[in-house]
Design a protein that fits this description.
Length: 286
Amino acid sequence: MLRHHFRAMGTEIELLLDADRDDSPLFQAAEDEFRRLESLLSRFQPDSELSRLNRVGEMSVGPELLELAELAVAARDRTAGRFDPTVHDAIAAAGYDRSFELIDGSAGRPAPARPRCGGRVSVDRAAARVTLEPGYRLDLGGLAKGWAADLVLALLRKAGPALVNAGGDVAVAGRPWPVGADTPDGTITLELDRGGLATSGCDRRRWRQQGQERHHLIDPATALPAQGDVLTVTVAAPSAAEAEVLAKTLFLAGSAERATAEAEALGIPAVLVTRAGATLLAGGLG
C-alpha cells in the first residue's frame, strides 16, 4: 500500500494507492492538483478566482469554478435552500474570516451587522460566466474540498484502487475500503468500494466571539451558526461532493429526530451523533 501525506485546502490530505510500484510522480501530480484547485477556489487567498468573483460580482470564470458554482446552485435548489453557497458573509460575521488555524479561539472582535443569505447566483454555462446578486459572496468550502477529492481520485485510479482523504471528505474506488465514522462509543467502520463519505459537524471548528461559542455551519434561515441537538453527521454517497451536500443538509435539519427521519426516507446511509452523546444510524445502517 502506497501512502502520501501533505497539507492543502486548509486541511490534511492523505492519498492511498493499492499498488506495488513506486508512484511518486503520480502522488506529486495529485498534490499539485490539490494546490492548483486551492489557488482557484479559496476564499482566503485574495488573488484566487473565487475571491476575484466575490469582489467584482460578475465575470467569466474557468471550468472549475463554473462547474462548482453550477453544482452549488443545483444543490441549493434541491435542498430547499438548506445548502446555500451564499453564506460567505455570515461565516465571516461569525468570526471565520481567515484560515481556521489563524483564528484566536478566544478572540473577542466585534461581530459585524448580521448579513443575509439566499442571494441569487446565475450561471451561464455557454458564456462561462457567473453573476452574483449585489451584496452577496460565495463560499464553496466543503463542497470544493469534496469535489477536489473526487477529481484527484480519478487521477490516482488510473494506477490502481485508490482512496483520497481530504480532511474527512473521502473518495474511494477500485476495491472495498474500510472508512471510519467517529462516535462517542468508538469508531463505526463503513465499507465503501466506490463513491464518497463526508462529515459535517460543530465538534471541531469552534471558537468564541464576544463570549459566545461559534462554529462554521451557518443556518441560511438565520444567517447564524446553526442551533439544534446534532453534533455530527457522517454520510455515504455516490461521490465525496454529494456526500458533503447531504451531510450539511442533514445537519441543518434542525433536530436529530428530523435528520434521521429524512435519511431514512431518502435512503441516505448516515451516522448521527447528538450533543447529548447518542449515536443514531439511518438509511440502511444498523
